[in-house]
Amino acid sequence: MITFIYIVLVFLILRFSVTVFNFLSNPKLGHYGKKFDDKVSLIISNSSGNLTALQKSISVQDYKNIEILQVDVKEDLAEAALGARGKYLLFLDSDSIIKNGLLNSLIYRTKVFNLKFLVLIPNRSPKTFIDYLLQPIPEFVLLNMMPLRLIRLMNLPALVPGNDRYLFYGAADYRAKHNGDSEDTIDKKVETLLANGMLLSNQEASVRNVTKDLVRIFDGNLIVVLIYLTLLIVGPIVLILNFEFAFVALPIGLIFLTRIMSSFLTRQNPIINIILHPIQMVVLTGLLLAGMFKRLFTS
Predict the structure, then answer these.
(1) Pick from 94, 262, 259: nearest CA to 194
(2) Lowest mean pLDDT, pick from 48-52, 103-107, 113-117, 234-238
(3) In this structure, what is the dihedral angle of CA atoms 203, 205, 207, 210, given to the nearest 10 degrees?
(4) Reduced to 3 states, what is the DSSP secondary structure of residue 75?
């Protein structure tokens, strides 16, 4: 038992350290003043059937050389992207709003750091209790598991969390990847960044989407998921049952600070996240297990 408790404490400290690293390194897309005029193709997955807010945000963009390609069936995204005329491709969900500066900043980042592609983590716009309960969970897990800045700095593409809704590609790099020509992009890097208020997702929280995002973070590895949940859920319970409050104060403090930092990074309400944290962890457990077993049995 004491060995397990030590492992839980180390796990908490590691999660806290990763969150501190993310908090201090501030892995957000910067607002760059550089202007470009390359054509950018927006590949929009029409998941909701309502494009009004997105179309309005595109119409008031400071970036004008834009091609819009709307896709109603997700499987047609690749076909649309391969036929796009833009030098750059931005994949968006229809429940999105883009802000001024996004496209210039993406192009600048891609050019300066020689990126193959960039994954954006959008800011959320919760409206209902379900939104506040579900939406923060994937970002919380991501920010205390992955040091986002190291993905590019150490060229670790294997750590890039899967996300098929908000991707920015050089069109040539996308075609090379699709055609299997990896030699053309071998010297390029990938990056995952927080959208920093320049990309907003208005998508209502759903069990299906949150489960999908969580499974992607763990790359569908059931063993890793089970170890993670054991240390995340069972660990604190064992600590509370075996020690006095004075000894439990440290792990509780680490969890509290981790939640505060991840909330500020993603522009979420830290007070609401702290209040809902116990419920969210129970929901996280259920969603991850359901998602992983569904993946196993459907494959």
Answers:
(1) 262
(2) 48-52
(3) 70
(4) helix
3-state class (DSSP) for residue 124: strand
Q: Are 124 and 163 in contact (CB under 8 A)?
A: no
Q: Environment class of residue 187 by beta-carbon count within 10 Å: exposed (0-12), middle (13-18) or buried (19+)? A: exposed
Measured CA to CA in angstroms, residue 168 lies from 94, 111, 185 at distances of 16, 12, 15
Q: Using alpha carbons, list the distances in angstroms from residue 98 to 53, 79, 133.
A: 9, 23, 24
**Alpha-carbon gap, residue 270 to 17, rounded angstroms:** 19
- What size, in residues, is the chain? 299
pTM of the model: 0.88
Residue where the block lists tokens 């969390």? 161
User: Which positions ≥6 away from 72 have C-beta within 8 Å?
Assistant: 46
